[in-house]
Amino acid sequence: MRSRQHGFTLIEVLVALVIVAIALGAGIKAAGALATNAERLALVSSGQWCAENMLTELRLTRQFPDIGETPFACEQLGRSYAGKLKVSPTPNPQFRRVEADIADDQGRPVLTLSTIMGRT
């Protein structure tokens, strides 16, 4: 009589290794996407703080902004941002549209925040 050996064949082991490799690859890709998304969220959040700070400062001075563009710089969470305030007229001369464009330190746009300001 032949004795049966117990265990896995080479094909079964290779299939199991392929399954584990695919699962690990998908997990690493998902972890990388999460890290990228967290970095982007921090970049946009701190850029938004810069824009909100500039628009709030403009409101607190209670001056009606002149039409045109004004550059500004901001630092939040150890990052430097370049900003540009764009003031444009509206159909009602008592109001102006103010946009704060924020770019990262490499000049890539991060976000634009806009508001309407009235004459006080």
From TrEMBL:
It is a single-pass membrane protein. Residues 47-117 form the Type II secretion system protein GspI C-terminal domain. It comes from the Bacteria. It is found in: Cell inner membrane. Keywords: Cell inner membrane, Cell membrane, Membrane, Methylation, Transmembrane, Transmembrane helix. It holds the Pfam family T2SSI. Its main location: membrane. Cleaved by prepilin peptidase. Type II secretion is composed of four main components: the outer membrane complex, the inner membrane complex, the cytoplasmic secretion ATPase and the periplasm-spanning pseudopilus. Component of the type II secretion system required for the energy-dependent secretion of extracellular factors such as proteases and toxins from the periplasm. Belongs to the GSP I family. This is Type II secretion system protein I. It comes from Pelomonas aquatica. The lineage of its organism: Bacteria, Pseudomonadati, Pseudomonadota, Betaproteobacteria, Burkholderiales.
